[in-house]
């Protein structure tokens, strides 16, 4: 190797790596090659198309059908959709061929060959990941009937007593001062 090639940053150098069947010379792969391989192993453009599908879910199925069948994900060539009630799941089973046709048409290929339906049970559907629940969606809990009056049973300097006082203040409306009244 010539002296000026030693300092050229673009020259591929031999590095100390274990030789393998694919890398007989022990040369470090280029970053672009590694990223391309990683992209393919992670699903590459298929994952990008699925994200586009989840984002356009209402347009793909139509608003009425999209309200009933929420996307939960995929398992190989199986599309996993969620429903709020078992009766809705049963009805959606009859519409599975139409759902498959619309989804595969959007993707431009026969990506899925089966649909399974599951109860949502508190899971967040993929078409609503960006949506956040506002504070008004969660009603404030009602105060218990017998609130307060147990302070005399607790040592005033204990963590349990401070926690109980904060709990009582939450319903009474006083500002929580972190245990310091």
Q: Largest sheet, if any?
A: 3 strands, mixed
SSE arrangement, N to C: HHHHHEEHHEH
Mind telling me the CATH class of the domain at 44-127? Answer: Alpha Beta
The total strand number stands at: 3
Distance between the termini: 78 Å
What is the CATH superfamily of the domain at 44-127?
DnaA, N-terminal domain
What would you report as the Rg, rounded to the nearest angstrom? 29 Å
The low-confidence runs, each spanning 5 or more residues with pLDDT under 50, are none
CATH architecture descriptor of the domain at 44-127: 2-Layer Sandwich
Structural class based on helices, strands and sheet pairing: mainly alpha
Strands of the biggest beta sheet: in what spatial order? 1-2-3
Q: In percent, how much strand structure appears in the residues?
A: 5-15%
CATH topology name of the domain at 44-127, in short, is GMP Synthetase, Chain A, domain 3
Task: Give your account of this protein's structure.
InterPro entries: DciA-like. This is DUF721 domain-containing protein. Pfam families: DciA. The chain has eight helices and three strands; from the N terminus they run αααααββααβα. It has helices at about 5, 30-40, 45-55, 55-60, 65-70, 85-95, 95-105, 160-170, and strands spanning about 70-75, 80-85, 115-120. With about 180 residues, it is mainly alpha-helical. Strand 1 and strand 2 (about 80-85) form a beta hairpin. Strands 1-2-3 form a three-stranded mixed beta sheet. Among the domains are: about 45-125, DnaA, N-terminal domain (GMP Synthetase, Chain A, domain 3, 2-Layer Sandwich), CATH 3.30.300; about 140-175, no CATH class.
């Amino acid at each position: 190797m010539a002296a000026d090639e030693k300092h050229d940053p673009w020259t591929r150098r031999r590095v100390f790596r274990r030789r393998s069947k694919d890398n007989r010379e022990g040369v470090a792969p280029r970053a672009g090659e590694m990223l391309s391989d990683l992209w393919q192993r992670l699903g590459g453009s298929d994952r990008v198309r699925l994200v586009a599908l989840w984002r356009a879910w209402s347009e793909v199925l139509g608003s009425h059908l999209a309200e009933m069948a929420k996307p939960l994900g995929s398992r190989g060539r199986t599309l996993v959709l969620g429903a709020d009630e078992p009766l809705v799941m049963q009805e959606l089973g009859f519409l599975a061929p139409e759902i498959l046709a619309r989804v595969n048409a959007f993707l431009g290929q026969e990506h899925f060959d089966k649909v399974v339906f599951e109860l949502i049970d508190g899971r967040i559907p993929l078409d609503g990941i960006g949506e956040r629940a506002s504070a008004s969606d969660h009603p404030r809990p009602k105060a218990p009937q017998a609130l307060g009056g147990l302070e005399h049973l607790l040592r005033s300097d204990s963590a349990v007593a401070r926690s109980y006082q904060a709990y009582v203040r939450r319903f009474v409306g006083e500002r929580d001062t972190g245990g310091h009244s």
